[in-house]
Amino acid sequence: MKNEELYRESWSLFPTGVSVVAVLDNKKNVHGMTANSISSISLNPNIIMVSIGVERSIKNHFSKSNSISISVLASDQTEIANHFAISNSTNFLKNTKYFQFSNEYFFIQKCLSFYFGEIIEKHNIGDHEVYFIQVKYFDLFKKKEPLVWYRGKLSKPIC
Ligand SMILES: Cc1cc2nc3c(=O)[nH]c(=O)nc-3n(C[C@H](O)[C@H](O)[C@H](O)COP(=O)(O)O)c2cc1C
Question: Which of 1, 40, 72, 90 is the most exposed place for a label (fewest CB within 10 A)?
């Protein structure tokens, strides 16, 4: 096994939640990407980190937008996680049907929690672009369980 594969495998042992990071382009088409490399960085103010691979198609829209949506998926949303993990940048109709829009923000319908905000800083780190997003709105729906990414598979929580 190559070192790179072993390195990837080592991180597959670290279970995470699963989110969909999304942005509107200047034609109001919604672009989404399944992401587990997100983290709460600061509580005061509320700042989230999102890491996007340099080859991802969402990257071009992301850096131009001031309105970023991050939805944490629930355990019954595997289909959505799979949809936004494949190249779907032109399938806007299907993308849109997963989202709920209000005047001020948008998020994946029936997700576990969501955050909406603007980019305050960006850094190029290795093969990823790391964005820091200041939260303007968020909400949570406590009665659902999270979708989990572990050993390269989507699953329900073990406990
Ligand atoms: C569970 C899971 C988590 C992922 N997390 C990230 C991530 O944090 N950052 C990232 O750049 N890609 C991540 N990906 C890969 C992207 O979702 C995927 O490469 C992208 O949506 C492909 O679309 P594109 O070809 O239009 O860029 C993840 C994929 C899965 C299945």
Answer: 1
